[in-house]
């Protein structure tokens, strides 16, 4: 997987929003690549910009958003410059998306079958009977029991986990090369979450899509991702393989997140935690955006934004602690 | 000393339809739950959404009346009061002061039209605690500072705060009447990951300082293990296992408890565990729960008795409701 | 909330129509408050020589010289062929229009006695200043429109106020307590709503005894209008309360031991406030039209008291309309007021919608 081709390349993407409280720097100069057949985990808390990034890839950004700079390269073309008319053939066909709330990602007025037919008609030019066969087959493959019956049902007649499976089946109809999953299991119970995650993994093995998996839950990431990118306050602060990041988190924020897992040994001890609160996108601090909450903070952190440093093994971190060839910065 | 004893609590919510609102069915939220909470202890209730854990919290706080069963409240002198039905006038004020609640969603639990000061003042005014305005203000400021907020926040509105800060405000409000028991219904699940542990730590500190009991309701096993002395696992309105925290985690007995534990992500990419998922399907609807053991349609250890006879919660310290252990 | 209020005010002023509506309303209400002062005559002053007189022509230049606004008195003449009465200007006399003249005496708000009027002509002349023309008793229509605004513009305000209060309380009780209380209130509102509106007005207006003094009639009409208007509010408030009562802050208040009354007044109604304000502004026009319709049909305000609907009632016949088109002027005021309230209401509704506020930023 390491040497596979890039399928999506995002360079220096900068997206700002104008709001009442001022400019919101939702996504500030981020770059990353998605490789073929890999799962890329994008981790971050609310308001860190992970969802905005993916809406930009889907060209579904709210008109209030301004893309100040950057490019999103898909098949050597910049998605940001493709006309909406042409992109309609890509969205939903080559790039699919799974949302957090399965209940609201289906239209409640149409049956699952009708919504599947809609996709088959637009992207695959299939007839009603053909798409019915394909839809039912796909529903069977994602583990929906009695797919013939479910095909005729309305969204409200199905449970959350079943709907999320149906959403995955709907996306797989066109066999997209990229699947963006935005917190796909956050609304589900743990036992159902485990099933859906498992399903997504086996689907990927079978269909060979690349997945961008967005979540705030490092536990889920540990199960799913090949590589992990950690986002904080509109910036990518750390990138690396899942093994690397979990074994040796470098950025103080990533470290804090790792430690905040409540382990059995902590019982009757004080839980470690990151102090302070997540800044709102209108009020990101100067310098390194994590500096007010960081226990390793130095003067430079408050003044200058750190740049990305490669510390080997494709492990990149944006933190002043690792400037000077991966050695810790001398305290000044 | 005991605070609350709930015996065989059952709660059915009627589903009504038609012009005359005839009852067409029931949501069977709780079936025969027993629970006892003593002073200065933490009980954890764990289960998935729709299992009835929130309903249980609301029955104990007397938001809902139970359909069957009885609920007893004990005042500080140890006198027993039957509070199954409407709260009696003589005990109402004591009861309300003794039991408070912290909710899941701090965006929902604070009235957006009131200032922080007014929110915290509300319980004090309902029970006419202070006659002197100055004392009241001092007390509110002291509480705010205790939960890690500035006393200058009293004039601000909830929407000006982040989720974690709002949860602190909610905690301050729950503390105003110096309750003996606080029901914490998923107090951290709506918060950012990096803030969750702060709130748990705050709750723990407060517990030790004021000697409060907690009833912790959550779907998060790690959290429940960390904060509870004793844990009750609920599935579809039934308590299926009950044990001291460490015991339950070291030696889970019920197949559902095992499934819950194996479904938790590993946090270790070198040793992923979701490949070995033990369960299929989803919890059935509480409108038509299965006969016999509620878990039998999903259980891999199902035996003949499971779909006929509902197992009882049996055992001494570690109780389990499963035919495998009969 | 301070920022939020500021935000809402800003958003409101971004909507041009809303601002225009607000300005018009401010003018209309100034007219309501200072009616006696603004109207050149009292609403009862009649002039036999001026029945159905057309609007006075205001002139500025006399024999090539600018001398400020003035009018000529009117003389009645028979048309030599049709023998119809027509008015001709008596150009020999010049009657200047002045500001702050002494005219009919009045008691402003029943307290301050005065005879000062904003503008008018001298008392000593036979002429009549009638910028909007006169009616069949020779009463100045402008003065009657100004006095009429008192009834028309306040009836909507008072009526809406009462109906919104009734509606909010009924809706909150219905939604909060549920059960049979809810069923009874809901069926009652459905029953009342299913009556056709105009016959219901007629029936209710019939109850008002004809010998009642005008002020009593006024309040009776307000009651009739509010009695019909509260159901819509009650429905929506009930719906809002149904969702609000499941909110955790309401449950929190219950665990503190707050009473049902306290929860309704402190948490539920304040949280429906923005809706109530919007619905109030939007239902005032309905009330104004309601009063106009009733008065137009002769069931509302009675002579010599005046309201816009009553004034418009004079223009009922086609012949009156063709001969005395100025009798339609009160209709313009009704349209203006109704439109302004609608503009302001719609603007407020957008402002109260938090998503829209963000977009207008």
Break the fold down into its secondary structure elements and pairings.
The complex is a heterotrimer of chains A (332), B (326) and C (361).
Chain A: E1 6-19, E2 22-35, E3 39-43, H1 50-57, E4 65-74, E5 77-78, H2 84-87, E6 95-98, H3 102-105, H4 112-124, H5 128-141, H6 147-151, H7 160-172, E7 178-182, H8 190-207, E8 210-215, H9 218-224, E9 227-232, E10 235-241, H10 242-247, H11 252-259, H12 299-303, E11 309-310, E12 316-317
Parallel strand pairs in A: 3-8, 3-9, 6-7, 7-8
Antiparallel strand pairs in A: 1-2, 1-4, 4-5, 9-10, 10-12, 11-12
Chain B: E1 2-17, E2 22-38, E3 42-46, H1 53-60, E4 68-74, E5 80-82, H2 89-98, E6 99-102, H3 116-126, H4 133-146, H5 163-175, E7 181-185, H6 193-210, E8 213-218, H7 221-227, E9 230-235, E10 238-244, H8 245-250, H9 255-263, E11 319-320
Parallel strand pairs in B: 3-8, 3-9, 6-7, 7-8
Antiparallel strand pairs in B: 1-2, 1-4, 4-5, 9-10, 10-11
Chain C: H1 2-14, H2 16-33, H3 35-38, E1 59-62, E2 65-71, E3 74-78, E4 85-89, E5 95-96, E6 98-108, E7 112-120, H4 141-177, H5 179-194, H6 197-207, H7 214-244, H8 248-256, H9 260-271, H10 273-296, H11 308-313, H12 318-323, H13 329-352, H14 354-359
Brief sketch in words of this structure:
The complex is a heterotrimer of chains A (332), B (326) and C (361). By secondary structure, chain B is an alpha/beta fold.
Side by side, the strands of the main sheet of chain C go 1-2-5
Q: N-to-C terminal Cα separation of chain C, in Å?
A: 17 Å
| Secondary structure: helix percent of chain C | 55-70%
- Which H/E pattern describes the elements of chain C? HHHEEEEEEEHHHHHHHHHHH
Main sheet: strands, sense, barrel of chain C: 3 strands, antiparallel
Strand order of the largest sheet of chain A: 6-7-8-3-9-10-12-11
Shape of chain C: elongated
Label the overall shape of chain A.
globular
How much is the radius of gyration of chain C in Å?
25 Å
Quaternary: heterotrimer
Query: How would you sum up the major sheet of chain A?
Result: 8 strands, mixed
Number of contiguous helices of chain A: 12
What attributes characterize this protein structure?
heterotrimer, B: alpha/beta, 7-stranded mixed sheet, 4-stranded antiparallel sheet, 24% strand, C: 361 residues, mainly alpha, 3-stranded antiparallel sheet, 14 helices
Model description:
- The complex is a heterotrimer of chains A (332), B (326) and C (361).
- By secondary structure, chain A is α/β, with parallel strands linked by helices.
- Chain A has helices at 50-57, 84-87, 102-105, 112-124, 128-141, 147-151, 160-172, 190-207, 218-224, 242-247, 252-259, 299-303, and strands spanning 6-19, 22-35, 39-43, 65-74, 77-78, 95-98, 178-182, 210-215, 227-232, 235-241, 309-310, 316-317.
- Chain A is globular and about 65 Å long.
- Chain B has helices at residues 53-60, 89-98, 116-126, 133-146, 163-175, 193-210, 221-227, 245-250, 255-263; strands spanning 2-17, 22-38, 42-46, 68-74, 80-82, 99-102, 181-185, 213-218, 230-235, 238-244, 319-320.
- In chain B, β4 (68-74) and β5 form a beta hairpin.
- The longest helix of chain B is centred in the middle third of the chain and has 18 residues, at 193-210.
- In chain B, the strands form 2 sheets. Chain B has a 7-stranded mixed β-sheet with strand order 6-7-8-3-9-10-11, sandwiched between helices. In chain B, strands 2-1-4-5 form a 4-stranded antiparallel β-sheet, covered by helices on one side.
- The radius of gyration of chain B is 21 Å and the shape is globular.
- Chain B has one domain: Rossmann fold (3-Layer(aba) Sandwich), CATH 3.40.50.
- Chain B starts with a strand and ends in a 6-residue tail after the last strand.
- Chain C is mainly alpha-helical and 361 residues long.
- Helix content of chain C is 60%, strand content 12%.
- In chain C, a hairpin with a 6-residue loop joins β3 and β4 (85-89).
- The model of chain C is unreliable at 354-361 (pLDDT under 50).
- The chains are: A alpha/beta (332), B alpha/beta (326), C mainly alpha (361).
- Chains A and B meet through α7, α8, α9, α10 and α11 of A and α5, α6, α7, α8 and α9 of B.
